[in-house]
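Run: sequence + adenosine-5'-triphosphate -> complex structure.
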Amino acid sequence: MANESSNCLTGASPVDLAKVVACNHGFYCPNNTNEHPPQYCAPTRSCQAIRLLPFQNNCPEPQGIYEPIVCPKGSYCPAGGKVVIPCSKGHYCPLGTETPFRCGRLSICPPRSSRELALDGFLVALIFDLLILALVFVPTSKLFVRVIPRKAHKGLKSDESTCESQLKTIEGDIAGNPDNDPANPDSDGAESAADLQDFVSTVAEYNDGGENGLSIGFNAIGFTVEKHSKRLISAISGKFEKGTLCGILGPSGAGKSTFMKVMMGKLEPTEGFININGHATKLAQYKKLIGFVPAEDVLLPELTVRENILHSARVRLPRNQSDTACQKLVDNLISCLGLSHVQHQVVGSQITSSISSGQKRRVSIGMELVAAPVALFLDEPTSGLDSATALSIMRLLKAISRTGVTVICILHQPREEIFEALDQVLLLAQGRQLYQGPVSDASNYFCGHGFRIPARSNPADVLLDIAAGRMKIKTSFIASQDLPKILAETWEQRRDELARASVMAREIPTSECLKPIELARIASVRGALWHRQTYLCFVRAMKQQFRQPSGLLLEIGVGGIAGLLIGLGLYPYKGMHFQGTYLAPFELLSSAVDYSTVPKIGQMIALAIALAAAAPGVSTFGEEKSLYWREASVGHSRSAYFVGKVLSTIPRTALSALHFTSFYAILSTPLMAFWITFLLNMLYFYCVYGLASFVSTAVKRENGTLLAMILCLIIGAFGGYAPPLSTIQTWRLEWLWRMCPGTWLSEAYVDQTLKQVAYLYDTNTAARWTGYTLGRTPLDIAMIFLIGTAYRVAAFLGLLFFDRNKQR
Ligand SMILES: Nc1ncnc2c1ncn2[C@@H]1O[C@H](COP(=O)(O)OP(=O)(O)OP(=O)(O)O)[C@@H](O)[C@H]1O
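>> structure
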């Protein structure tokens, strides 16, 4: 029933909003009856000016006595719209509330609240911050370090020379000297020798008392770099028998490292072939039985000396070993390596190193020895060590070789005792072989070629001088620099005869060596099971994070600041991030619509998280690629490492997302529930970390951060705010936007916001205008998770397939 007379403020004719009287949900219609149905009045100039504002745009009063008014903020208007009731404490009532929204238990909502100040995130974040701060003030070496009281250490001195006396004792034991019987408490050094005795006998047990050894034969091995057609080594033949300590000597650039890589299967020989125990097979197939100490020390700087070695033991020893057995073996080895007094010190980086470079070298050796390998390759094990420590390490290696382990090491200028401790020596020069055979025969061999070896000289130095062309043959006019070439040719011509004379005498018949199938069986029980390796990698990665609390705090702080900045930008909206046209038939009463703020928030959040999380995401794998390569090359499970690392980033991303969401939510007071906002933000952190992880596997560390940040900004910009997703749909390019997590994030934000006000506004029109689909937040969440997971799968494939050679 239209009202005949105008009751509008301007005197303009009213327009009936409804034929049958009805007050929309969320409206106040005090004067409307059947006789006086709701009306629309043309607004006054000042009211119109307010209605056109981008926000805070509702006229405080109706424009006529029969015009409904949207229920004011801080109050609610129950169905029928006859009363306006102030919002009670513990509830909040935004504009147009019909039923007050209940505040969370940890929210601040005084009477007449129009928005919720949710403190949940802040309180939870505060608890975690205090915990992390507590960690900052706990000396890092005490964190997670399990100090085991060791009876065996009772008589152990903490100085590094202790190993020396033990090694002498064990050598005596090996030689069967009854005076040095470790079981005899009266004998000299018996107590400290017990560690070494224990260690060596445990290694022997793992290797079936020497039965498992590997004899490695190589025939006319050559390697040429295809790219430059450069021949690095050629025609190297011989054999390293199981249970021997072999040295590879030669001047710098002679091809020692190249030869070792070829032997280990890290490089494919371009000529010749290698046999293992007399069978044509590759050493790379028995990764789990092999130890390799690279020339550079690749250790985890955040872990202690003991933890570095213990991790290796737990991952690589036969899986039926108890943890107590692992711990005991590690204790024995640490004592043998003279590292007892620094075992609980973190290794430290190059800049913040807390142990010496010689100690790092010993840790590096320890990480391989503790795995009780069947064959052990060491690239310059004694570099950086003083001569006494170098000698003690070599004696330890010799003792290990006597348990059946084949130990092959590249040596630079070994002192005489070290040289004489070797069973065999392979001398290289200019990529060619000058000699291979027993150390004791080397001097005679070169004397036979006319070299005069001075008495009292170190034979190793003499060999190196010969190989470097620094020694002349007195009776010859051949220039000394031409001699290595001539010696190599002589060796090649007489190789079989010479090798037979020197090596065959000690050769172990093939029938006494294990066949490939038996080796494969032994390798199959080496190493912890996948789930245990995952757990060990996870725990190790968590330790790394907690040992660097400043990095963790910085990352969390950056997350918090990013949320704060976005929150500040949204503060003037006072929680009203969306405004649509009122539901029919009250459309005419609507103020200016705001469909774009929520998509804009989604996009800003995506960009802010990209800036906050891309750099730390890169460091997850980018910082320790060398360690990953080292571990992969000796048979650690690559997937277990990856999963352990990924799991360890989840608490970190959760904390960053929590700080981010807390600041954002407290300042912007969105209509969305706090924990859904947190979940969405955290999943977006998960995506950014995933993408940054992939980038770190694909490019160099120094380029990783910038590239990851740019890619994360791009996927964030593809959120459907500008250009609007509806426009993109007309271009038929929605699929491209849907491949980016930002679009799903914005859609979830739009859906969660609009669903709160769907009783008041025409949200379908808003959805059509923006292009987002409403009512499918679970799908949005699932898609963000799936995309994040896809990035991680890509990161894993990147780890597997980029730099494959380094993982061999
Ligand atoms: N990928 C490569 N491409 C081309 N040349 C290479 C490559 N790798 C090594 N070389 C060259 O091959 C030679 C042998 O290198 P290698 O590292 O094996 O020597 P080395 O005896 O271990 O030396 P050092 O004792 O100094 O470590 C060197 O002249 C080196 O420059």
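>> summary
Confidence is low (pLDDT under 50) at residues 144-191. The longest strand covers residues 230-240.
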